[in-house]
Design brief:
With about 180 residues, the protein is an all-alpha fold. About 85% of the residues lie in helices and about 0% in strands. Helix 1 (about 5-15) runs antiparallel to helix 2, helix 6 (about 90-100) runs antiparallel to helix 7 and helix 6 (about 90-100) packs parallel to helix 8.
């Protein structure tokens, strides 16, 4: 039942909305519907592709053009150059911490790294390490959640059967009392 298209859809979904799709796919893997290793691979590649998109957006954005379009920003050129230098110097910490901090600052950090022209190979290495930890954690959480949901489903089925039996017995008892009262 596992089709390659399931994992292609996971890849595309994670590229657009990473954590939610990763957790949902991992929960399906925990329920035995998908392979957790392929979910990890598809989700990791999807997140990696999205991260490289944001880096390239910053890299190709050419902040120098903005300074020409908005002459009032020219006065900020020394501060911008200083900021680019600091980002380039601290790119490893910046990118790794932003990746592991629930993904909140990942996009701005990647765009800033692109604008600062951090070497692409540094970004790729950092993203591979961060992605392995981040996506691996999400898949583990989702798999355990999926196993819990599958167990919860069985428990709810048992509770439903028991509740139905109790309801049927109560209804039978009530009807028996009602009809025995009417006979008298």
């Amino acid at each position: 039942m596992n089709s390659i298209w399931h994992y292609v859809l996971i890849f595309l979904g994670v590229t657009i909305e990473g954590p939610a799709v990763t957790l949902a796919a991992a929960a399906l893997a925990g329920g035995g519907i998908l392979d957790p290793y392929l979910v990890f691979l598809a989700a990791g590649c999807g997140n990696f592709a999205a991260d490289l998109f944001w880096y390239m957006l910053g890299f190709l954005g050419r902040s120098e053009r903005s300074l020409n379009w908005f002459p009032k920003l020219k006065r900020l050129e020394p501060q911008i150059a200083h900021l680019k230098t600091k980002i380039n110097k601290n790119a490893t910490q910046l990118l790794l911490i932003s990746k592991l901090s629930l993904g909140i600052g990942t996009i701005p950090a990647l765009i800033a790294a692109g604008i600062a022209h951090v070497a692409w190979w540094r970004v790729v290495l950092i993203q591979i390490v961060g992605e392995t930890i981040w996506t691996g954690s999400l898949v583990l959480i989702g798999v355990f959640l999926g196993q819990y949901v599958a167990g919860l489903e069985r428990t709810l089925q048992i509770a439903g059967i028991a509740g139905s039996i109790i309801l049927f017995a109560g209804l039978t008892f009530w009807l028996h009392k009602l009809f025995s009262k009417n006979k008298m």
